[in-house]
Amino acid sequence: MSAVIMSGKEVSEAILAQNLEDAKELKAKGIIPKLAIMRVGDDPGSISYEKSIIKRMANTEIEVESVCFPLEVTQKEFVSKLKSVNEDKSIHSILIFKPLPAQLDEEEIKYIINPAKDPDALNPTNLGKLMIQDETGFFPCTAEGVMELFKYYKIDVKGKDVTIINNSNVLGKPLAIMLTNEFATVSICHVFTKSVKDYTLKSDIVVTACGIYSLLTPDMLNDNAIVVDVAMAQKKNASGEFVLDENGKKIRTGDAREDCAEKAKMITSATPGLGGGTGPITTALLGSHVIKAAKLLSGVK
Asked: CA nearest 146: which of 157, 135, 131, 132?
């Protein structure tokens, strides 16, 4: 492999260390940072993610309260509880697990969550603050995680040509704004882009997050490309069948094919051996946002 492998875990550990220090300082002032998780149903993946958040927060002295609802919860019941958590002064951040079941109206809910307690920018107020660079806002953790990776590895994006293969509100759009605020030149590619390769070949940085194994291949990159693969996918063979490991389980990967590391200058991806991607950074930043909210709500600088 010729590429420098960027470790998402290494970046996350640096953020977690700072979170622990900040949480201890808040506790010394009588403030206990606290996150509320609102989860509907008992999806195994959501429960596993919730447990990982609780464990990670405990390691940095951030409290977590789980607010669980049955799958058939009504809009009225959910909104009533959300308003109650909004008003609870002991809770500084609220993370609503998505997707929500069909009977819940996310369009209403996202305007009800208190923007000051909204660590992953569900409320459009926070996306507006991102646009005008208002640092009192909270920006999507997934997108911010990419910027933290650049910061940790001292990658200056100013003047760089960047292609983002994703146009979601969670990653593509907010990341494009963050990069533009740092004077990068940004292109966003999506399902209707005529030729993604035309964009990636001329890019200094390529960020991909589509969940499609082998979406990004070496012929799409130049020799100096920096690849940030945010995606989670499963490896497939040429026939489109899942490739299984020795235990018969699907192999977790990113969008980037393994041999992208032979072409790129730097890379991180969930593809085995390529640094793990940015997932660990996302969870660490959630903790950072809880602490930031605790400071803002308590008037602590």
From this structure: 157
Q: What is the DSSP string of 155-177?
A: ---TT-EEEEE---TTTHHHHHH
Phi, psi of 223 (to 5 degrees): -65, -20
State the virtual CA torsion across 57, 54, 97, 67 in degrees, nearest 10.
Answer: -110
In angstroms, the CA 192 to CA 180 distance is 22
CB 168, CB 121: distance < 8 Å: no
Could you read off the pLDDT of 80-101 as tens digits, one per residue?
A: 999 999 999 999 999 999 999 9
Give the CA distances from residue 20 to residues 23, 58, 61, 151, 264, in Å, rounded to whole numbers and listed in that order.
5, 10, 6, 20, 35
Domains with residue ranges and CATH for the chain: 30-116 (3.40.50.10860), 141-278 (3.40.50.720)
pLDDT (0 to 100) of residue 240: 82
Phi, psi values for residue 38, rounded to 5°: -110, 115
Residue 1 confidence (pLDDT): 55
User: Which residues partner with 207 through β-bridges?
Assistant: 164, 228
Over the stretch 116-147, which tens digit does the pLDDT of each residue have? 999 999 999 999 999 999 999 999 999 999 99
Could you give the C-alpha distances from 79 to 38, 140, 297, in angstroms and in order?
11, 22, 22
Query: What pTM did the predictor assign?
Result: 0.93
The torsion angles phi and psi of 25, rounded to 5 degrees, stand at: -65, -40
Q: How far, in Å, CA of 256 to CA of 219, rounded?
A: 11
- The residue behind tokens 């497939």 is 236
Dist CA 217 CA 58 (whole Å): 39
Rounded Cα distance between 301 and 298, Å, is: 9
